[in-house]
Write a structure and sequence with these properties.
The complex is a heteropentamer of chains A (254), B (290), C (236), D (363) and E (370).
Chain A (H helix, E strand, L loop, with lengths): L1 E12 L2 E12 L3 E5 L6 H8 L7 E6 L2 E2 L5 H7 L1 E3 L12 H8 L8 H6 L2 H20 L15 H14 L4 E5 L7 H16 L3 E5 L3 H7 L2 E6 L2 E6 L1 H6 L1 H12 L1
Parallel strand pairs in A: 3-8, 3-9, 6-7, 7-8
Antiparallel strand pairs in A: 1-2, 1-4, 4-5, 9-10
Chain B lengths: L1 H29 L6 H17 L5 H24 L7 H23 L4 E2 L8 E4 L2 E4 H23 L1 H11 L1 H6 L4 H27 L1 E2 L3 H16 L4 H21 L5 H15 L14
Antiparallel strand pairs in B: 1-4, 2-3
Helix pairs in contact in B: 1-5, 1-8, 1-9, 1-10, 2-3, 2-4, 2-8, 2-9, 3-8, 5-6, 5-10, 6-8, 9-10, 9-11, 10-11
Chain D lengths: L15 E7 L6 H20 L8 E7 L6 H11 L3 E6 L3 H14 L3 E3 L14 E3 L4 H15 L4 E7 L2 H17 L2 E8 L8 H9 L4 E5 L2 H13 L5 E4 L6 H7 L7 E4 L10 H12 L5 H20 L3 H10 L3 E3 L2 E3 L12 E6 L2 E4 L6
Parallel strand pairs in D: 1-2, 1-3, 3-4, 4-5, 6-7, 6-8, 8-9, 9-10
Antiparallel strand pairs in D: 10-13, 11-12, 13-14
Classes of the chains: A alpha/beta (254), B mainly alpha (290), C alpha/beta (236), D alpha/beta (363), E mainly alpha (370).
């Protein structure tokens, strides 16, 4: 089943068309990667899906419902969650608290419940804590759970971002360059982690410049260049695509 | 009567503009609403006043002394009160500036006494008419000076190397240093310049109203701030226009709506403008890339 | 050319660098590799004066530069492309590049170098008047490197230059680094996560782990080292 | 120049303590400063003669910064201090109104020169007023303007505080009752407004024959200058709030001919007036103004009360209730049953750069 | 000018003394902070009981010092006001500089209702909170579009407009003359007519405010506030409706400030527009930041210190406000996190080598328009 579908999506900034008439979809349970040169429009495409930008043209459907005019927080509560290319963790919070924020949209207590500490409010808070603890275990972040998130090394911060996104219990997870700034060994671990996440039943859409990771993990790869989708297919097909090689991969990988 | 009110407005507006230009310039560089700017303006006026009244110097040297002392004061303030707080959150700097404003007001009161002092009359007020608009000589001088300063400052900030360095320092001090920019120097130059401008404005206003007093900076500072924001804070030409717009709106508002709500009208205009253009008339919207 | 002696750095209670020693000869490419949080960035920050050490010295051309301010260090020709790029978001691309040449006064050569940078990164030429803050991640990275080149460095320190760049650009950047090194005798201190690439171009390499140098050798030597292959090159 | 006076003199047990509460910092500090100087002068004169019954008199000063929030704090501080026998102040009506309840509860006599009529509304019997109420002043001025000056079309420019608003309302009412017309009413903010041109331009358009300025001297001086510049050439009438030498320093030629009310003038001599003026001048290098004179008289009243009835709060109030035609430098002082002073305004004008009594006085 | 030297000498002495006082006190504050953070639940509860106990018997200890009692009442009232601003500034990170307006609205609503319509205090009190809350909502709306300095000036404008309405709308507010003769509050026929009574009313309100702040801070909403303050875009991406939270903060803050205003009106029996100026807003702002933005014990301490200090300094009359200004500056330099700042302790790794770049940027983002 198509979990996400984009039809004719376009985004212009003034004179610049960052995403140009892109058709795209992803099936439930897939890992799909978007690659392309720097400035091709990948991050912008993520921003369109998550409601940070509104498309200039086109339709984006999530689970068959049009989402292109929803606010980011509404889209998140419908089940799309993301990480950021430039890490954006909450700087005055610990790792635990950062991830706990992901549970915000899964809890319901309003101001009165909170002030009077109703039974339900306490209960849902407890449940949220348990879920977060599970996620922390899953990501092996136990040892840094009480550290201020932004004082940690980049690699760990990326993991925390993933944890935070998972905590919103998304149906579709968008990862923007999760392995950037990691060494090869860490990339291998990241690859394993993403696979593990998919095996838990999440659908994953990935932006990444590390070809080893992309090719090793993706069910399907889409390539953007100057906002246009210039290719789409299985990893091995993409690796051999002339246009992709000249625009993006360069000689070595190709 | 409309034309008369319009000239009143332009005259008043040029006073606001003059103060706002210095204000906005300091803001542009260190992103600090320098709440003490109004009080530096007051100190500048007092310095000139002291030179004239206590040391019997003629106007021009006194004026220059006033500006120089204010520049020095500005640098001292930046060095001892502001730079130590640069690393802390924004709000601390803001409070530091408020503290400085309170301090300067009371310091001036201790030195010169609380009462309003009369500023010697120096420029005789001739009246010029200009297509139905009436100006006194001093008003014309003030308007010309503020336009001139706005032009010169815009040029410095936009086109010169030091101006570019100023803009860099305002965005990222560490990165600016990595370019070889001596950011401390830049900050001090900015403050010296901004404070000298403040002193010039303060002195001209004191001459205009023939009065100096310790609290003169308070509402002037607030008004200049409003003018700067209307124009888009950080934009020098914006401050110029913001000041003029505010002067005119205030005068017309006082005349045709109600003098009691005069200041409220200025703020209402401000809020309306901000609702339509959240960064002021000339402010740039630098959207954050996600 | 540069000598780092017994460097100790603390962040609050954390001992981030524990007695680091190494040197760089003129004309060399030296690389520091190591896992996340090992202290690589901290070393560069100490050299460029952004972070102050507790103990130890940094000596550049036989002079201690410990106590110099960042801008003075830059004047000596030590240029640092920092982690996280730190381009000026409200300046446009060309203004950013010109800021790199802040300390230079040779107008004509500046123009030439500007052309060279555009040559190297045609993408930047296309984006000349765009505000730095709205560039894509990779474009910003190009801009940061280009800006550093504009300052005619004698020692160029790059912190993870390949991060976030398309493979084809990474190759180009490394080619450029080698070219500058060969043609202009530029000395380079390179911090990289992509150990494979870095070790290929490096004359000398150091492996840092939790604030200490645990291995050193030429690039080739380390490429062949088992421990390195296992820990950093992701080979089984 | 002056740096204001020191706050407390060291006091020891058994000293006689009276207090002054008023603005020593902030927008109106100049007024508090003048009053403090005058009170200190009166006290020092007594102390030079050996004090009262051998006891030294000491002044405590409390700064209310013109802020009605601070005034009660000052009041409470004095109220708690058993030594304080009486309080002179506050200068702002709003401060007096905010603080009077506390003085009343503590039974401390309060001698105020604030003009708002609510002040002596009977709810706080320990409060006395040594200046005229705004109403009385306004009525006298309206009558003078209508009958003596023969004006019929008055424009009013008033400061937006209780002083200005009260005067504006009462003057307008009285002037219209007499048969005159109020052609314009405009306002401004004390201490903040420095530009009056829109108001004046508008007033000019209504063609008045009198401009009544209900405010203080700084703004009145500016208003006079700006009306000249705008070509508004009309008789100006001011309040007691401008009777200060500073008016002329600030206003120069522009205030020449302005007519205004006062409670005091050095040339209108009563017993002690000349000595007071000279002593003040010698000590502070400037002429005393109305507030200084009234503050001096207040201090003298209290000191006389202590001398006669002993050092107690009740004794002072008893004295104030009974006093008749006490010889003040601003004229004889008696209080009516509301505790308001009984006196008339003097009409002053500026002639050749000097404040002089007007040729014709009010009756 | 003759006294230049004199003034300078006195101020320098004051600066040096202040500097050392702050240095010494800082140690104390750190101790307190450590203590609060390290404290377990049981101890915490005991300490709170102790403090509450002291607060409850305080007025009897002070019965012979009405001035101190009055100052305590004012201090507690400012605790309420500072905590109410803390909702907006500390929780939601919105720089509001017109907070005195809500306080003024509360005071005037109570004054008008009680004086003109003989409404009982409790009703007037509730009405004050509601009306102030409505204005909080109105002011909250533009903040959705405005950031940092632009928001600051807008809130200043709001405060000034409100004050001008109070001054000019003479028919209703009696203009600058203010409204005298506001009756004392009475509950079920029992009238509060001494300061001990007022003390307990305001203490109750303070307890209520602390309670609400505390519950809120430790809830999902409290965490949501912090997230929005740190990085609004990321917060939205995590499913947080930042619009709702910001407006909630404004409404809550305004309503509680309105309650404080209502209390003030009956306590002083007189309201006047001059009570609710821009400087008043600034004073409240200083209390929050000086105490420790976002930290409840910090804000409480800030309010107490900044109420008591000017009273304590009355003795030095003319130098009082100059020294107040100096204190602000020195505090910001020597103790940027405020007196008691829990965040600072949590992130205890920060020092001069800190990842300043990153965290600084975030703070910049929340308080300035970049
Ligand atoms: N807010 C904006 N305003 C103007 N231009 C923008 C904006 N955001 C992105 N762009 C431009 O749109 C293009 C696409 O940017 P985007 O961030 O989507 O690239 P990307 O594919 O993610 O690149 P990278 O791999 O380098 O991160 C770039 O050229 C960028 O400069
Ligand atoms: N400002 C700071 N405050 C606290 N700890 C810090 C700070 N900066 C760095 N550290 C710590 O110092 C150690 C070294 O950090 P550094 O950034 O130098 O590592 P790195 O090798 O560059 O890692 P990365 O690959 O993530 O860039 C890490 O443990 C890091 O958490
Ligand atoms: Mg991207
Ligand atoms: Mg690093």
């Amino acid at each position: 089943m198509k979990i996400l579908e984009a039809v004719g999506v376009t985004k212009s900034f003034g004179g610049l068309t960052a995403v140009d008439n892109v058709d795209f979809h992803i099936e439930e349970g897939e890992i799909v990667s978007i690659i392309g040169p720097n400035g091709a429009g990948k991050t912008t495409f993520f921003n369109l899906i998550t409601g940070v930008y509104e498309p200039t043209k086109g339709v984006i459907k999530f689970l068959d419902k049009d989402i292109h005019n929803l606010k980011p927080y509404e889209i998140t509560s419908r089940g799309i969650s993301r990480t950021f290319q430039n890490i954006r963790l909450f700087s005055s919070m610990t790792v635990f608290e950062n991830i706990m924020i992901g549970q915000y949209c899964k809890t319901k207590a309003n101001i009165l419940n909170v002030i009077f500490k109703t039974k339900n409010a306490i209960k849902e808070q407890e449940e949220a804590r348990e879920k977060v603890e599970k996620i922390i275990k899953f990501l092996e972040l136990d040892s840094v759970a009480n550290e201020i998130a932004t004082s940690l090394p980049y690699g760990v911060q990326r993991k925390v971002e993933i944890g935070r996104a998972l905590a919103t219990e998304p149906k579709l997870l968008l990862l923007d360059e999760p392995a950037a700034g990691m060494n090869s060994q860490e990339k291998v671990e990241m690859q394993a982690l993403i696979r593990k996440i998919r095996d838990q039943g999440y659908t994953v859409l990935l932006i990444e410049h590390d070809m080893k990771l992309v090719m090793g993990i993706s069910d399907r790869v889409a390539v953007l260049d100057y906002g246009n989708k210039i290719a789409e297919g299985k990893p091995h097909e993409i690796q051999r695509n002339e246009r992709v090689i000249s625009a993006y991969l360069g000689k070595e990988v190709g | 009567m409309f034309l008369e009110q319009l000239s009143n407005g332009i005259a008043l507006g040029s006073l606001y503009a003059l103060t706002a230009v210095g204000y906005t310039m300091v803001y542009g560089i260190i992103r600090l609403i320098n709440f003490a700017h109004g009080d530096i303006y007051m100190m500048g006026a007092f310095f000139t006043y002291t030179a004239i009244v206590y040391f019997n110097l003629p106007l021009v040297p006194s004026f220059i002394i006033g500006m120089a002392c204010a520049a020095l004061l500005g640098v001292l303030i930046a060095k001892f009160a502001y730079t130590p707080v640069f690393k802390a959150p924004k709000i601390n700097l803001f409070l530091c500036a408020i503290g400085m404003a309170i301090f300067l007001e009371n310091f001036a009161m201790l030195l010169w006494g609380p009462e309003t002092q009369s500023f010697p009359t120096i420029i005789q007020n001739q009246i010029y008419t200009f297509g139905g608009l009436k100006f006194t000589k001093l008003q014309a001088v003030i308007l010309l000076i503020s336009i001139f300063l706005a032009l010169v400052l815009s040029y410095i900030v936009k086109k010169t190397k030091i101006g570019r360095a100023m803009r860099c320092a305002s965005q990222d001090m560490v990165a600016a240093r990595l370019m070889g920019i001596n950011t401390n120097k830049i900050v001090f130059i900015t403050f010296a310049l901004g404070s000298a401008l403040g002193a010039a404005a303060g002195t001209l206003v004191a001459m205009y109203y023939k009065a100096v007093y310790p609290m003169m900076g308070f509402s002037a500072g607030l008004k200049a701030f409003v003018a700067a924001v209307i124009g888009g804070i950080g934009s020098i030409t914006g401050a110029m226009f913001g000041g003029l717009i505010m002067g005119v709106v205030e005068s017309l508002g006082a005349a045709y709506i109600s003098s009691g709500y005069r200041d409220a009208i200025a703020f209402i205009i401000l809020i309306i403008i901000l609702l339509f253009k959240p960064t002021g008339l000339f402010g740039k919207t630098v959207k954050e890339k996600v | 050319m540069l000598e780092v002696k017994d460097l100790d750095v603390f962040y609050g209670g954390i001992h981030a660098l524990k007695g680091i020693n190494f040197e760089i000869n003129e004309g060399e490419i030296v690389t520091l590799i190591g896992s996340n949080g090992a202290g690589k960035t901290t070393i560069l920050n100490v050299i460029s004066g952004v972070v102050k050490q507790k103990n130890g010295d940094v000596i550049f051309q036989n002079e201690k530069i410990n106590n110099l301010t960042t801008e003075k260090i830059v004047e000596l020709g030590i240029i640092h492309v920092p982690e996280g790029r730190r381009i000026f978001t409200a300046l446009n691309v060309e203004e950013n590049l010109l800021m790199g040449a802040y300390l230079r006064n040779d107008k004509k050569e500046i123009q030439e170098d500007l052309e060279n940078v555009y040559e190297l990164f045609p993408r930047l030429r296309e984006r000349r008047t765009q505000m730095g803050g709205t560039l894509s991640g990779g474009e910003q990275q190009m801009l940061a490197i280009g800006r550093a080149l504009m300052s005619k460095p004698r020692l160029l320190m790059l912190d993870e230059p390949s991060m976030g760049l398309a493979p084809i650009i990474v190759q180009e950047i490394y080619e450029t680094i080698e070219k500058l090194n060969e043609e202009r005798n530029l000395t380079v201190l390179l911090v990289e996560q992509n150990a494979n690439l870095a070790l290929q171009v490096a004359h000398q390499a150091y492996v840092i782990e939790t604030g200490e140098i645990v291995l050193q050798g030429t690039g080739r030597e380390l490429l062949g080292d088992d421990r390195v292959r296992k820990a950093y090159l992701g080979e089984e | 120049s002056s740096g204001g006076s020191e706050n407390t003199n060291a006091s020891s047990d058994g000293d006689i303590v009276i207090a002054h509460a008023g603005p020593m910092t902030g927008d109106s500090a100049q007024f508090g400063d003048m009053k403090n100087k005058a009170i200190q002068l009166a006290i020092d004169e007594v102390n030079e003669k050996g004090g009262i019954n051998g006891k030294k008199v000491v002044l405590l000063t409390g700064d209310d910064t013109s802020n009605p929030k601070e005034a009660p704090n000052v009041a409470q501080k004095f109220a708690q201090d058993d030594r304080v026998l009486a309080v002179i102040g506050h200068w702002n009506s709003s401060c007096t109104l905010a603080a009077r309840g506390i003085y009343n509860a503590a039974g401390i006599p309060l001698l105020a020169d604030s003009v708002n009529k609510a002040l002596t509304d009977g709810t706080t019997p320990t409060a006395y007023r040594i200046s005229l109420t705004d109403t009385t002043q306004a009525q006298s001025l309206a009558k003078y303007a209508y009958e003596k000056l023969g004006k019929r079309r008055a424009a009013i420019l008033y400061t937006a505080n209780d002083f200005g608003t009260g005067l504006m309302e009462d003057f307008g009412k009285a002037f219209e009752e007499l048969g005159g017309e109020i052609v314009a009413t405009e306002t401004y903010f004390e201490g903040q407004s420095k530009d009056f041109s829109p108001q004046l331009t508008k007033i000019k358009g209504t063609n008045p024959d009198l401009l009544f300025i209900a405010g203080y001297y700084v703004e009145t001086a500016l208003i006079a200058q700006q009306s000249k510049e705008l070509g508004l050439d009309v008789q100006m009438l001011g309040t007691e709030g401008i009777s200060s030498e500073e008016l002329i320093k600030l206003g120069g030629d522009a205030v020449e001919g302005i007519i205004f009310a006062g409670f005091f003038h050095p040339d209108i001599e009563y017993p002690g007036t000349r000595e007071f003026v000279e002593a003040f001048r010698e000590r502070y290098g400037k002429d005393p103004d109305t507030y200084a004179a009234l503050a001096y008289d207040s201090a003298k009243l209290i000191l006389a009360a202590i001398e006669q009835n002993g050092a107690s709060r009740e004794g002072i109030m008893k004295f104030l209730d009974e006093v008749e035609d006490f010889p003040g430098v601003a004229g004889p002082i008696s209080f009516d049953e509301n505790h308001d002073v009984v006196r008339n305004i003097v009409v002053l004008t500026v002639k050749d750069g000097k404040i002089v009594p007007a040729a014709e006085q009010a009756d | 000018m003759g006294n230049l030297i004199d003034v300078l000498i006195k101020l320098s002495i004051a600066t040096v003394i202040l500097y050392f006082v702050i240095k010494i006190l800082s140690k104390g504050f750190d101790k307190i902070t450590d203590m609060i953070v390290a404290m377990d639940k049981e101890k915490n509860r005991k300490l709170i009981y102790l403090i509450v106990g002291i607060l409850l018997v305080l007025p009897f200890l002070l019965s012979r010092y009405p001035y101190i009692l009055r100052t305590s009442i004012m201090a507690i009232m400012y605790v309420v006001l500072a905590l109410s601003l803390n909702f907006v500034l500390g929780f939601a990170g919105q720089l509001s500089m017109g907070h005195a307006a809500f306080y003024g609205i509360g005071a005037y609503v109570t004054a008008l209702l009680m004086v003109n319509f003989n409404v009982p205090f409790l009703l007037a009190f509730i009405a004050s909170a509601i009306v102030a809350g409505i204005f909080g909502f109105l002011l909250g709306v533009p903040t959705l579009r405005l950031k940092g300095d632009y928001l600051a000036i807008t809130t200043i404008g709001f405060g000034e407009i409100l004050r001008l309405v109070l001054v000019n709308w003479v028919e209703v507010t009696r203009g600058p003359a203010g409204i005298p003769g506001i009756p004392s509050p009475s509950f079920f026929g029992f009238t509060i007519n001494n300061n001990i009574g007022y003390y307990y009313i305001i203490l109750l309100l303070a307890f209520f405010t602390v309670f609400v702040s505390n519950r809120l801070l430790n809830s999902r909403l409290g965490q949501g506030f912090i997230a929005v303050r740190d990085d609004e875009i990321a917060a939205e991406a995590m499913g947080i409706n930042s619009t709702y939270l910001k407006i909630l903060a404004f409404v809550l803050g305004a309503a509680i400030a309105g309650m404080a205003g209502s209390f003030f009106a009956t306590f002083v029996h007189y309201v006047n527009p001059d009570n609710f100026t821009y400087m008043e807003s600034v004073t409240i702002l200083c209390m929050v930041v000086l105490g420790g933005l976002g930290s409840i014990p910090g804000v409480i301490l800030g309010a107490i210190v900044l109420t008591v200090l000017p009273e304590a300094l009355r003795g030095i009359a003319l130098y009082r406000y100059a020294i107040y200004g100096l204190l602000l500056i020195l505090m910001m330099i020597n103790r940027p996190g405020g007196m008691i700042n829990m965040d600072r302790l949590k992130g205890g790794r920060k020092d001069e080598n800190s990842r300043g770049s990153r965290s600084n940027k975030v703070l910049r983002r929340s308080y300035s328009s970049r």
